[in-house]
Write a structure and sequence with these properties.
By secondary structure, the protein is an alpha/beta fold. The chain has a single domain (2-102), classed as Glutaredoxin. Helix content is 38%, strand content 27%. A hairpin with a 2-residue loop joins strand 4 and strand 5 (81-87). The longest helix is centred in the middle third of the chain and has 16 residues, at 30-45. The two termini are 18 Å apart. 25% of the residues are buried.
Length: 103
């Protein structure tokens, strides 16, 4: 999974053609830790989708760009357009449905 920073965000997300699923998290966040294995599983199951993550404590500018108010937050970006977000711990089926809807 690609770790996004202010240095690589343009090349990894803004210039990418296709769906990028971005996990916005923090190391101290319990629900983020619970969701991480699900995101990794979805990454293995969807090789045609780019998965990335942003540590909101390390990358405050990016967190502000996504208007993060609560984590975990999963952002769905396609062709440099924010299509959807999911906030909080959600079951795998909901994330699968969102990925399917935005592919």
């Amino acid at each position: 999974m690609t770790v996004l920073t202010s240095k690589n965000f343009k090349s990894e997300v803004e210039e990418y053609k296709g769906l990028v699923v971005i996990d916005l998290y923090a190391d101290w966040c319990g629900p983020c830790k619970m969701l991480a294995p699900t995101i990794e599983e979805l990454e293995r199951e969807n090789p045609d989708v780019k998965f990335a993550k942003i540590n909101v404590d390390d990358e405050r500018e990016l967190a502000m760009q996504f208007k993060v108010q609560s984590i975990p937050m999963i952002a769905f970006v396609k062709d440099d357009t924010l299509l959807d977000v999911s906030v909080g711990y959600v079951p795998k089926a909901k994330l699968e449905a969102l990925i399917g809807m935005h592919k």
